[in-house]
Amino acid sequence: MATTLILPAASGASAAPRAAAAVASRRPARPASGGVRLTRRGRLVVLLLSLAIVLGVGVALSGGSVATQEPGTAEPTQTLIVRSGQTLWDIAAARTDEGDVRGMVERIERLNALDSAEVTAGQRLVVPAN
Q: How confident is the model at residue 43, as a pLDDT?
C-alpha cells in the first residue's frame, strides 16, 4: 500500500526536494536482504534452465548402451502342432519338469506372441525344447 504525502506548495528551490520525497514515498520498498526479485517470466526461465541442467546431468550419468557387441545364444526351441482337444495348459504341463506350469504357459505365450492362452487344433506353436 502506497502512502501519498500532501505537502503545502512552496516556492523556490525547496519545492524540488519535497516533490522527490513524495515520488520516493510512492515506490514499493526494495527487499532489505538485497535479493533479486524475478518476474513471472524470469521465474519460468530459471525453472526451465534448472530442468535442462538436471536432464543433461541425468543423460550424462546414465552412460551409454548396456548392450554388448557379441550376440547372445538363442533359447533352444521346438515347433509342434496343436492336436484336437489339446490346451495350452496341457502342452505346458508336458514340457515342464519342476511343476511350474503357469510359468511355462507364460513362456510359450511370449515365444509365440499370443494374446491369450487360447489355441486351436492345427496351430503351430514354438515351445522350449526339453
A: 94
Q: Report how many domains make up the chain.
A: 1
C-alpha cell at 43: 521465474
Listed in sequence order, the residues at least 6 apart from 15 whose beta carbon sits closer than 8 Å to its beta carbon are: 9
CA distance 108 to 75: 12
91-124 pLDDT, tens digit per residue, is 999 888 877 899 999 999 999 999 988 999 999 9
Handedness of CA 17, 22, 23, 25 (dihedral sign): positive
Phi first, then psi: give them for residue 78, nearest 5 degrees. Answer: -135, 155
Quickly count: other Cβ atoms within 10 Å of residue 125's Cβ: 19
Global confidence as pTM: 0.46
- Residues facing 126 on adjacent strands: 79
Q: How far apart are CA 101 and CA 95, in angstroms?
A: 8
Q: Structural domain of residue 111, as residue ranges?
A: 77-128
Judged by average pLDDT, the poorest of 25-39, 45-59, 81-95 is: 25-39
CATH number (domain holding residue 81): 3.10.350.10
